[in-house]
Amino acid sequence: MGQLEGKTALVTGGALGIGLAVATRFAREGARVILADRNGEGAAAAAAGIGENARAVTMDISNEDAVAAAFAELEAAGWAPDVVVANAGVQLFGQDAPAADLDLDVWRRTIDINLTGTFLTVKHALRSMVPRGGGSIILTGSPTAVNGEGKDFTAYSASKAGMHGLGRTVAAAYADKGIRVNTVQPAYTETPLVAAISEDPESRAAIISRIPIGRAGTPDDVAGIMVYLASDDGAFATGATFQVDGGMTSL
Ligand SMILES: NC(=O)c1ccc[n+]([C@@H]2O[C@H](COP(=O)([O-])OP(=O)(O)OC[C@H]3O[C@@H](n4cnc5c(N)ncnc54)[C@H](O)[C@@H]3O)[C@@H](O)[C@H]2O)c1
């Protein structure tokens, strides 16, 4: 029997990368999964690839009406989630920059999706979960939130630091309502998000040299800890950050 039998999980940014790997693994562990993405076609194709226990919903996390409508649609269909992975995010390579050179528009677009979008996902997850007695919320954080790893990416790093703070605040506020909130912190993980690094041998070697385990992460490296946090095995874990970063921030 899978570890997530009987659970329904929504994963934002589920069309690609880490979100797709997590949703695929959740389904293998017996969960029904919802791939929520602003790329509705990509999410639908990914859901079809997973099978009948998966469905897709088109949702831009930075648009509150779209987030609220998606949760309402799922509730009406009997797919209200017990687990929400707030994973969707952007990193604006070529635009994000050290602070003195950073355009306000790039700052706003990044914060709007990564921080405000995560807040909106969490807000509507709570509204759905609290009346049903609880649930597990998992955020995808970043080493850039906790050290100087993202020094050339001011907006991205600040958005991720905000997410880590949001996770702790919401965990504290809702612990007595059966809601657990945890953050998973992957290191450099080869997905379409970081193509600007992985397609440039020098940048790739430089970032891997800062990971003590000596390799890039894969989306599957992140999936296992998320299964634990989504499952009843993680029942006593809340407000925590789980590093899956090859030792990047702990060694
Ligand atoms: N790849 C890495 O090295 C790495 C490292 C640490 C943290 N992360 C974080 O992991 C998460 C997933 O990253 P990834 O590498 O899988 O990225 P990705 O670009 O491969 O996939 C991101 C997905 O999110 C979706 N998305 C983007 N903006 C959205 C929005 N406004 N609403 C809904 N969906 C939206 C995209 O359409 C895409 O399907 C992000 O939060 C990222 O910051 C990634």
UniProtKB/TrEMBL annotation:
EC number(s) from the headed UniProt entry: 1.1.1.100
Stretch forming the signal peptide: none
Question: GO molecular function terms here?
Answer: 3-oxoacyl-[acyl-carrier-protein] reductase (NADPH) activity
Among the Pfam families in the record, one is adh_short_C2
Q: Which InterPro entries match?
A: NAD(P)-bd_dom_sf (IPR036291), Sc_DH/Rdtase_CS (IPR020904), SDR_fam (IPR002347)
**The keyword Magnesium belongs to this UniProt entry's keyword annotation:** no
Task: Tell me which UniProt keywords the record has, alphabetically.
Answer: Oxidoreductase
Q: In which domain of life is the source organism classified?
A: Bacteria
| Family named by the database record | Belongs to the short-chain dehydrogenases/reductases (SDR) family.
Q: What is this protein called?
A: 3-oxoacyl-[acyl-carrier-protein] reductase FabG
| Gene name tied to this protein | fabG_8
